[in-house]
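Final paragraph of the annual report: two paired records, presented back to back.
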Amino acid sequence: MQEQTTRPGTSKQRQCSRLGHPGVELDSGSINCCVPRLAFSLRNDIDDIDIDDNEIEREERFRIDVMVMAMVIVMVMIVVVVVMVMVIVVVAVVVVVVVVVVVVVVVVVVVVVVVVVVVIVIVVVVVLVVVVVVVVVLIVVIVLVVVVIVIVIGGGDVGNGGSVVGGAGNIHTYVDRVGDSSAR
């Protein structure tokens, strides 16, 4: 224990009151401040710490500010990464949709072209078949008409040699040769 005596109103008296000990007034009128030496030195250190409290508070506020800024930076980076991923996904989806649309359009165009070509080929074949049938029918009709005309006008049959026998054109020949109209 350390005894300190001070006169009233001196710095020592104020120091005693700061230590939480009002001090004891001695007969001589001085103030006796009985505190352990360690406690006295600790109180001085505490006073120094009180002085440094402002610095500590400033440092803590600075640390908090730095932490807040770091959190803001991290959140901004997360948002940027999320936006970049979303942009990449959107671009990929757009590319896939465009490729699918192009493939579908190409397939549709190819199918339409193939169908048109097949229809044109079918129409051409049908027209050719119809033309051939019409030509064959016309040839047959013409041949039949010629044969009928030759038979009716000629009045005879077509012989083995292909000439008309006994037709109207030959009547005069028979009549002239035989001399009567009953000759055949």
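The closing record of the year follows.
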Amino acid sequence: MCIVAKPAVIVVDPVSTGLHVAREVLARGFQLIVLHSSDADKPACIANMPADVATHAVAEIHHHGTTLSALPHDHQSVDMDSTLHALKAHVVGGVLAGCETGVTLADHLSDRLGLTTNGASGAVARRNKYAMGECIRNAGLRAVKQCAATSWNSIVDFIEHDLKPVPFQVIVKPVESAGGDDVFLCRSMTEVKDAFDHIQGHVNQLGMTNMATLVQEYLVGTEYVVDTVTRHGVHKVVAMWEYEKGPANDAPFVYFAVRLVEATSPKHKAIMEYTLKVLDALHIRHGPAHAEVMWQPHEQAPCLVEVGARCHGNGGYFVPTVDRCLGYNQVRATVDCYFDPTAFASLPPFPGKLLAHGCEVPLVSYDEGVIETCPGVNAVASLASFQCAYWSVGVGSRLVRTIDVFTKPCSVWLLHASKNVMEADVKRLRKLERNRGLWTVQGEAEHAGLRRLIANVNAPESNRQGAIPAEYAVNLMQPFGGASASAEASARDKQKAEASSLDKAHSGMSAQKKADRGDIFYEKLIIFKTSHNRIKENAESDNKRLSSKDMSQEVDRGQKAKQIQTVT
């Protein structure tokens, strides 16, 4: 009996959910070829590729051509001669995009190989957000008002003559990126200019240089994600999610939760039907996609934010949750739509009633510093609906404030038969964040005491509360009144000496050391200088007014103290 070996399947940039796609390919008995696109951050891709994928691939190829995918037109060339030469030794049965950076190369390569493909023609509109928006507008669908700019003057012209936002709210972001990377909500032309300067020509989180900046109208409403798979133009919606996003750490769109939706209402059906028309407009006739769509209540209609012509990202952590809630998932359905027509046909056109309720809760860090303890690991795992958690930080790690999906410290996945139980756990996680119950960072205890002290120093006497820490022996709550002149002088000298010492220590610190300490020295300086000023003001023997220079310095210090107080 002759056993015919299955062909090889190429996964372009098997990163994030692409790793799960690569594993599914191997599990089906196909040979795996890993292809790194020229857009991808190659060192990171290689370093982070798990052994179960890297060691089982029959080939690992580095594409050295260019896709020029940031340019909003189709007359581009992709140099694939060396890549095609490297593939000659293999019988290739399909080309799949693993992540966003692999989409354009997958389209061009599958086209050149004569395989199932969405085609090289129109590939730009499946990556470039400006071209994408114009493509669906030309198809007669609701599209966001926008312009793609490489110069400031063109942005000014678009906002002043075309967009004319009232109130002034404008979105500025790269034409190609993902995960909320460098997405700005601007409320003035000055903020638009700052965002443009930050984006244009800089390298984004996908390792790509931003060749153009996208300026769009601000869509108001609730944002949904529609996950799909398609075979020969037949679309299946395999999951629908609802985003909970909002401002945090001066960033406008931080993810707080991503909930799997029971997509059976008329509104949900309208969103899904609109999404399928978007896929047709973008000529997505094969493979996976996920579309971010805003439901605008004032229009009672959906509007596209953007589409990714690949699987839902987020590390692929959604796969076990969706499996439990729906009985299938987008990764498995992706391989089905290319290689198993019977399994694809058995998928329902739209998701039905949920078997359980699932939700991702991206933890939000409001702190910066080196993590000393991580009590949140046990606290999170003890939740009634806890399914799994993916921590990107731990003891000794550098914690940063969360501003997008790339800076979240942990992704917690909840799953339960009861939606109420799951939602109660979401609230518990938010409470742990607010109460600093997830982690402690270096100097956090000292910070808390210092901030309480600053609050007392700046509060009206009638509103002061709490004891002054023992190390700050000078009475800041009341004037020295009954104290002897010698005691007052001694206290004043002590304050001056401490402040001088701290000044020297602070100025001699490296920037990194200051960051690691949370700038505790600077907060101490504010306290010492504020308290020293109070002693001077309240001392009966001191009736001189501060000089204008000292006064301006003191006002500045007071403002900084209030800023710190506001953080609490």
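The longest strand covers residues 234-248. This concludes the annual technical report; the extension proposal builds directly on these records.
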